[in-house]
Structure formats: structure tokens, C-alpha cells
Automatic annotation (TrEMBL):
Alphabetized PROSITE patterns for the sequence: NA_SOLUT_SYMP_1, NA_SOLUT_SYMP_3
Signal peptide annotation: none
Membrane topology term: Multi-pass membrane protein
Phylogenetic lineage: Eukaryota, Metazoa, Chordata, Craniata, Vertebrata
A biological-process GO annotation: sodium ion transport
Keyword entries, A-Z: Cell membrane, Glycoprotein, Ion transport, Membrane, Sodium, Sodium transport, Transmembrane, Transmembrane helix, Transport
Ranges annotated as spanning the membrane: 15-37, 57-77, 89-111, 132-157, 163-181, 193-211, 243-262, 283-306, 343-366, 386-405, 417-438, 445-466, 494-515
Protein name per Swiss-Prot or TrEMBL: Solute carrier family 5 member 6
GO molecular function: monoatomic ion transmembrane transporter activity; symporter activity
Similarity section: Belongs to the sodium:solute symporter (SSF) (TC 2.A.21) family.
Compartments where located: Cell membrane
């Protein structure tokens, strides 16, 4: 018995662990303070929310991976691999198209429009109403998600080491709120860079010590191989199978598109790049780092399996939560090595801080740009900046309340987070796709499509909670059991949620558009005007509305569009 839960995490190694953790918080605050006092001193919304559109690709790319890589993935993925084998690793296949499409479809459109909020596109293409619906949906998504993010590391540490749960939640939330409010997007991006490095270092430390303590690489490999944890390619087409190549490799593409294509947290980073090329490059650079992050967390799960194969330490721990078990494994490995438990705790909090800071800043941006500015056009710049700061701080406090709601849910945190992305992010992806790829879609169709998409998403998502399905089957059930009717519908793999909900929005959006009088926005559309396929102006492909306003959109006018900039810079 390790007795970790009574002794506290660091008691055996001493003060150096606390110092490392304190350094993380202090360094993040220092970066916040630095950007509060340098440059333009955060006196304009351009600087506070858009980092003066001056960023280089390296910090942007590290910040991009930090946005959606939180303690949820660091704890959740090893738990998943430990329990179900390496099948989840195939989600790495979805990163290829999941990043190429944002780089060459979404970035060119949004960057060239010079918008501040991605949802501005929805007003240009459809109407104000669609923009507001999109913004409100995004706010819901991020507010629920950041609750999970801030709760996860606090919960897991508390279960294993007796770290004070609500004290930890409060400290994370407040530190993050402070540096986000002081330093704006520049501070958020540069703390992300620092925190991403700490995150990788912590994971690497656990793996290296863990491999050494379980008898070396070949011993770990022998154990996971004999324990049947190396999964082959599962090509089962059944959409209710939780993890197969199709659900992860194809369903995952839509998950990635909803995060890296249209999510404001990421779009804002693309927009903060100094040039469009730099934005595209940063998106490319996400690929190797994201593969590394995935590999580290999967390997950690394998080492954990090698350590405990056969015996399950969950009774010793007094909880059957896989998430808590991962922390137990880490502390078990690192105890007695001064500094390393502290490094891992810093790794968890780096991951969490870098995610919620992106959430605070992007939420402040959309609230300001989409919900406030259009209705107070005369607001002075200094007042708008002050208000943006107040918004960032308020979302920080709201985050603490959301952590309490997460506390009341049960599922594995990884599944909760990915379900939120699919249930709320999927319909938003559908809305943007409807605008960009379907010239017939009109505003009524878009609103109806989004509403229906969200309703169906919550119907399936909540149905799966009550029937305990979404692809997960009890272990003793040897796959003969096939749910029927509505139950089968509810047991759709959660990895398909993004794709399914995206298609619902497009389908309903198109049907309603045709019923209410479709728009004819043909002039700028490459599929109907093959000549345009070879022009290098993506902005004319996807932005029907602005051209219509310029009077080039007469019915069936198929003449090539002039290459005029949409808005003068
Ligand atoms: C978003 C993906 C799938 C990208 O690999 C991954 O980072 C992940 O599983 N994230 C889980 C959510 C989180 O870590 O907060
Ligand atoms: Na993060």
C-alpha cells in the first residue's frame, strides 16, 4: 500500500515539488504582466483580442495545439488505452485531412475577410440572426467545455493525493483569469507556448521513469503484447461500434474540422497571424506536435498497463474511476524522485490553464464583436477594451460555476469532452459548411438547420446517457447483443457525433431553403463554373453574399468574378 491518499503528493520528496508548481503559476503571471506593460499596453481591442495581428507561425502553432489539449486528454487517453487497447491511437489518421482542410478552405476565407469573430462570416453570408445563433451556440459549447477542463485535474489529484479539490479549482480559475485579463491574446499565446513545453516535459518524464521502473522497453512491450493491448486496424463498418478505424479516422476528421476549422478559439489564432501564409503554416505545424501529444499519452497508457497488468489497483484506491487511476500510476512511478511529481502536476495544470485561457479570450471576443459592438457602434475604443477585459474576467468566474456542474456528471472525462465537441461543435460546423459549400442555402434554412441539428444532437446525446450506450458495451457482453429501434439510434458511436450533427444541419438547411425560396448565388461558385476552379482566389469561391451586394450576382450569371478585395484593409 502506497498510502498516497493520506500522505499527500509531495510529502516524500519535499519542497522542490511545490517550488516547481509555484514557478509555473508565477511564470504565467509574469508573462501576463509583461504584455500588460509592453507594446501598446493593451489599450485597444485590436491588441487585447487580436494580438495586433502580428504573430509568427511558431507560437501560433503551439498555441493551437494547446487550446484543445487539456488535462482531459493527458489523463483520459492513458485511461482509455489501459482499458481498451491502442485502437484510439487511430484518431491520429484524422489529423491529416482534419488540418489540411482548415488550412486550405477555412483559413483563406476567414483570413481574407479580415473579420475578428468567425461568426461575422455568418452575417456576411446569411443574416444577423444566423450570426447571433452561431455565436450563442459557440458560447454554450465553450462554457460547458471549460468547466470540464478546470474540474478534471483538480478532481484527479484530489482522488489520489488529497489535494484540496475546490481550492485547486479556485486557484486555477483565478490565476488564469488574471493573466488573461491583464495580457490579452499575446499573453494567452505566449503562456500557451511555455505551458505546452511543460506539458510535453511532464509526460516524457512519466514515460521515461515508468519504462525504467517496469523493466525497460522490451519488458513493457512484452507485457502489453501478452496483455492484448496492441489493437489491429478494426474495419467494422457498424456505426454503433465505439472505436473503429471509421469512427476514429473518418468521424475524427469532422471533430477536427469543428475544432480547427470553425471554432473561434482557433480561428482567432489564425487571424492573429501577420500574414495568411503564416496562418496556413502554423496549421501545418500543428500536425507533428499533435501526433507527438497523442503518442505520448498513448504510450503512457501502455506503460501503465505494463505496470499493473493483471492486478487492478482500483480497490486500493477506493474508486473505480480510470481517470483517478492514471494519477495514481503517475504518483506511484514518480514518488521518491524529487521534483518529478511537481513537474507532472505542473504538466496537468499547464494543459488546463492553456485551454481555459483560450476559452476566456475567445468568449470575450465573440461577446464583444458579435453581441455588443454591432449595437453600440459609437462606443469608444478605450471603453470597448475595458469592457472586453471585464468580459474575460466574468467568463473566468463563470468557469468556476461550470466546474461544479461537471462535478455532478459521471462519465470518463475524455468521453464527456469529445461528446460536447460533437454535440455542439458539430452543428456549428454544419452551419459554416452550409454557407460555404451550398449556394442555395438561405438564412431561414440556416436557422432551421442549426435548431434541428442541435435538437437531434441533444436527443441522441442525452438518450445515450440514459441508455448507457454511445458505443460502449459492458465488458461481459460478447457483442451478440444488438440494440434495436431507438436504442440503436442512441448507441451511435460518440465519435460520429460531429459528422452526424453537421450533416443534419446541412440536410435540414437545404430542405428549408428550397421550400422558402432558394437563393441563386451561382456566379462565384467553382462547381458550377469550372473556369473558377483554376483561379487562385479562394475568397470568391465561398463568399456569395458580399459579391451579391456588389451587384455581380444576377440570376444564372456565370461570368467569372472580378478579383476585387472584399473589404479594403
Ligand atoms: C481534440 C483532440 C481529439 C485532438 O487530438 C485531442 O486533443 C483530445 O482528445 N482532446 C480532448 C479534450 C481535451 O483534452 O480537453
Ligand atoms: Na491546453
Amino acid at each position: 500500500d502506497l498510502g498516497l491518499s493520506t500522505l499527500g503528493p509531495f510529502s516524500q520528496t519535499g519542497v522542490v515539488d511545490y517550488v516547481i508548481f509555484a514557478v509555473l503559476l508565477a511564470a504565467s503571471m509574469a508573462i501576463g504582466l509583461y504584455y500588460a506593460l509592453s507594446g501598446g499596453r493593451q489599450r485597444t481591442t485590436q491588441e487585447f483580442l487580436m494580438a495586433d495581428r502580428s504573430m509568427h507561425c511558431l507560437p501560433v502553432s503551439l498555441s493551437l495545439i494547446a487550446s484543445f489539449q487539456s488535462a482531459v486528454a493527458i489523463i483520459g487517453v492513458p485511461g482509455e488505452i489501459y482499458t481498451h487497447g491502442t485502437q484510439y491511437w487511430f484518431i491520429g489518421c484524422s489529423y491529416i485531412l482534419g488540418l489540411l482542410i482548415p488550412a486550405h478552405v477555412f483559413i483563406p476565407v476567414l483570413y481574407r475577410l479580415r473579420v475578428s469573430s468567425a461568426y461575422q462570416y455568418l452575417e456576411l453570408r446569411f443574416s444577423k440572426a444566423v450570426r447571433i445563433c452561431g455565436t450563442l451556440t459557440f458560447i454554450c459549447q465553450m462554457v460547458i467545455y471549460m468547466g470540464v477542463c478546470v474540474y478534471t485535474p483538480a478532481f484527479a489529484l484530489n482522488a489520489v493525493t488529497g489535494f484540496e479539490l475546490w481550492g485547486t479549482v479556485l486557484a486555477t480559475g483565478l490565476v488564469c483569469t488574471l493573466y488573461t485579463t491583464m495580457g490579452g491574446l499575446k499573453a494567452v499565446i505566449w503562456t500557451d507556448v511555455f505551458q505546452t513545453v511543460v506539458m510535453f516535459a511532464g509526460q516524457l518524464a512519466v514515460i521515461m521513469v515508468g519504462v525504467q521502473r517496469t523493466g525497460g522497453v522490451s519488458e513493457v512491450w512484452r507485457k502489453v503484447w501478452e496483455g492484448n493491448r496492441i489493437s489491429g486496424l478494426d474495419l467494422n463498418p457498424d456505426p454503433t461500434e465505439r472505436h473503429t478505424f471509421w469512427t476514429l479516422g473518418v468521424g475524427g476528421i469532422f471533430l477536427m474540422l469543428s475544432l480547427y476549422g470553425v471554432n473561434q478559439a482557433q480561428v482567432q489564432r489564425y487571424l492573429s497571424s501577420r500574414t495568411e501564409k503564416e496562418a496556413v503554416r502554423s496549421c501545418y505545424m500543428v500536425f507533428p506536435s499533435l501526433q507527438l501529444a497523442l503518442a505520448l499519452s498513448c504510450v503512457m497508457g501502455l506503460v501503465m498497463f505494463a505496470r499493473y497488468c493483471g492486478e487492478d489497483p482500483s480497490d486500493k484506491l477506493g474508486t473505480s474511476s480510470r481517470d483517478a487511476m492514471v494519477i495514481y500510476f503517475v504518483m506511484d512511478m514518480l514518488q521518491g524522485l524529487p521534483g518529478l511529481p511537481g513537474l507532472f502536476v505542473a504538466c496537468l495544470f499547464s494543459a488546463a490553464l492553456s485551454t481555459i485561457s483560450s476559452a476566456f479570450n475567445s468568449l470575450a471576443t465573440v461577446t464583444m464583436e458579435d453581441l455588443i459592438k454591432p449595437y453600440f457602434p459609437a462606443m469608444s475604443e478605450s471603453r470597448a477594451t475595458l469592457l472586453s477585459k471585464a468580459l474575460a474576467a466574468s467568463y473566468g468566474l463563470l468557469c468556476l460555476a461550470m466546474a461544479y456542474l461537471t462535478h455532478l456528471m459521471g462519465d470518463s472525462v475524455l468521453q464527456v469532452a469529445l461528446k460536447i465537441f460533437g454535440m455542439v461543435g458539430g452543428p456549428i460546423l454544419g452551419l459554416f459548411s452550409l454557407g460555404m459549400f451550398f449556394p442555395w442555402a438561405n438564412s431561414t434554412g440556416a436557422v432551421a438547420g442549426l435548431g434541428t441539428g442541435l435538437a437531434v444532437a441533444f436527443w441522441v446525446g442525452i438518450g445515450s446517457i440514459f441508455t448507457r450506450s454511445s458505443g460502449a458495451r459492458p465488458l461481459q457482453d460478447n457483442s451478440v447483443f444488438r440494440p434495436t429501434g431507438l436504442k440503436r439510434f442512441y448507441s451511435l458511436s460518440y465519435m460520429w457525433y460531429s459528422a452526424f450533427n453537421c450533416f443534419t444541419v446541412i440536410l435540414i438547411g437545404l430542405i428549408i431553403s428550397f421550400l422558402t425560396g432558394r437563393q441563386v448565388l451561382m456566379c462565384a461558385y467553382p462547381l458550377y463554373n469550372p473556369q473558377l476552379l483554376f483561379t487562385n482566389s479562394l475568397n470568391v469561391y465561398f463568399l456569395f453574399r458580399p459579391y451579391e451586394r456588389r451587384g455581380c450576382n444576377t440570376r444564372n450569371n456565370l461570368s467569372p468574378v472580378r478579383e476585387t478585395p472584399l473589404f479594403s484593409a
